[in-house]
Amino acid sequence: MNKKTSRLRRARRNRAQILRMGKARLTVHRTGQHIYAQVIDAQGGKVVAAASTLQKDVAKDLQGTNNMAAAAAVGKAVAERAVAAGVQEVAFDRSGFKYHGRVKQLADAAREGGLKF
């Protein structure tokens, strides 16, 4: 088993647990160059809010798109958009990535932005 399949197995277990909880989920995906975040409703079908370093309004004042400052900017932006859409409480879906570095920074910024998880 390689790194990707191991990560996807961890993600599948976590998503099944979140589905049983019946909460909206804040899902994160990171690549070598960018970081993406989406808030998906409790039924799992619709994206309520999304932000990424590909969006010009998020990445306009950043030095790069693959660092901790960029992750914090994405976390803050997705939290603002989710709160504006009426979502206050979410479950954090880290998509099998370690809760460390950019993923942790995004989660902390989303908490500061008003999301509870």
Written description of the protein model:
This protein is α+β, with helices and mostly antiparallel strands. It has one domain: Nucleotidyltransferase, domain 5 (2-Layer Sandwich), CATH 3.30.420.100. The protein is built from 4 helices and 4 strands. The chain has helices at 3-21, 56-59, 68-84, 102-112, and strands spanning 24-30, 35-40, 47-52, 90-93. The chain has a 4-stranded mixed β-sheet with strand order 3-2-1-4. A hairpin with a 4-residue loop joins strand 1 (24-30) and strand 2. The termini are far apart.
- Identify the CATH architecture: 2-Layer Sandwich
Strand order of the largest sheet: 3-2-1-4
The helix tally amounts to 4
H-E string? HEEEHHEH
What is the third-level CATH name, the topology? Answer: Nucleotidyltransferase, domain 5
* Portion of residues within helices: 40-55%
Whole-number mean pLDDT: 94
Q: Structural class, please?
A: alpha+beta
Specify the overall morphology. globular
How does the major sheet shape up? 4 strands, mixed
The CATH class, by name, is Alpha Beta
Strand content: 15-25%
Oligomer type: single chain
Q: Could you tell me the number of beta strands?
A: 4
